[in-house]
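Example record used in the benchmark description.
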Amino acid sequence: MANNDTNIDQYRRRFLERSTAVLAAGVIAPGVFLHTVANARPADEAVTSKVRWGMLVDSGKCKTGCDKCVKACEVENGLTRTGRPEIDAQWIRKVTLKNKQTGHTTSLPMLCQHCAEPPCVDVCPTGASFKRADGIVLVDKHICIGCRYCMMACPYKARSFIHEDITDQKAHAPRGKGTVESCTFCVHRVDKGQSPACVSACDEGAMVFGDMNDPQSEISQRLREVQSMEIRGDLGLNLGVRYQGI
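Model output (C-alpha cells):
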C-alpha cells in the first residue's frame, strides 16, 4: 500500500504543477460574447498560484426559466442531449431554492465549485481528478478509470459519468466513454484571456468571473462590497464559486 500511495501522490503533484494544454479553438455559441478577463497567462508560461480563478453569481439577477448559461456550456464543450436525463452529461444546471416558510423561490446555476480543498481529488485513486495551481479543478481522461468515487464525494452533484460513445468532440474538451467529467471553467478560454462561455452568455450580468487573488479585479471588488456565501460553507472547502443574495 505504501508504494501505491506514493505513486498517487506523485500523480497529484505532477498534475497540480503542470498546465492544461490549450488545443484548437472551438465554436462560439450564438449570443456568446468574448468577455475578457485580466491575468491571462502567455501560452508558454506555467500556471501558478498567484491567480485564483473564481465566479460570483448574483441570484437577484438570475431569472427563473432562463437557461442561456446551460445552453452556452453545451455548445462550447460539445455536450449533447439524448432525451435521457439520467445519462446526459450536465456541467452546469439551473436549480431552484424554495423557502418553505415564505414560499419565496430563488433560481441559480449550479456547477463544479472548484474547491480549494476538493473532495473529488482526495478520493481519486489514480490522480485523474486534480486541481491546477490557479484553482481550476479538472479530470485527466487518460487515467480516469471510471470508478466514480469522485461523484460520490462531491457535495454538489457536479460530476457526470459518460455511459455511451462520444462523437463529434471538441478538440479543447476531450471526452470519453467510461470516464467522469464536470465544469472546467472553460479552461481553454480562460487561458486565452476570455471568460467561461456561461458568463459570456449571461446578458443579465448575473455572473462575474475573474482572479480572486487580484484586489483590483471586478470579482474581488464585488466580494468586498456585497455579502456573499458558499454553498455548504460549513464543509470548509474554500469554494471558487460564491453566491450573492441567497
